[in-house]
Specification:
Elements lengths: L4 H35 L3 H14 L3 H17 L3 H17 L6 H15 L1
Helix pairs in contact: 1-2, 1-3, 2-3, 3-4, 4-5
């Protein structure tokens, strides 16, 4: 049985929409867990959860939250991978958000992380 092109296109759109909805749901779940961990000052769990949320839905706001968690984690556990990841995530945020939002905070914290990298 041959499927008409319109039916195949509709099926593809439905699959993409379903995958997007699943990713959004996963991102929201990870983000909530990250926010809860961050509030409890468990920056390792916060960073890990925000990272998973960002993988599921690469939104600049999630990148900023993850960067903040890695920056705070670096203060508690000064490992180079934490500062590098914070640096990457602040850059990802600033690549998309040019003004407003948390641009000032991101730029300041990025400069701080870059000084740490040196």
């Amino acid at each position: 049985m041959r499927w008409p092109l319109k039916r195949i296109a509709l099926l593809a759109c439905l699959l993409v929409a379903t995958a997007h909805a699943d990713n959004k749901k996963a991102a929201e779940s990870y983000f909530r867990a990250g926010a809860k961990a961050y509030a409890a000052q468990n920056f390792l769990a916060a960073a890990q959860n925000f990272d998973e949320a960002y993988k599921a839905a690469p939104m600049p706001e999630i990148a900023f939250s993850a960067a903040q968690a890695y920056r705070r984690l670096y203060r508690v556990e000064p490992r180079p991978e934490h500062v590098r990841r914070a640096d990457e995530l602040y850059k990802a945020y600033l690549a998309v958000v040019k003004k407003g939002g948390r641009v000032g905070d991101a730029a300041d914290n990025l400069a701080e992380m870059e000084r740490e990298l040196e």
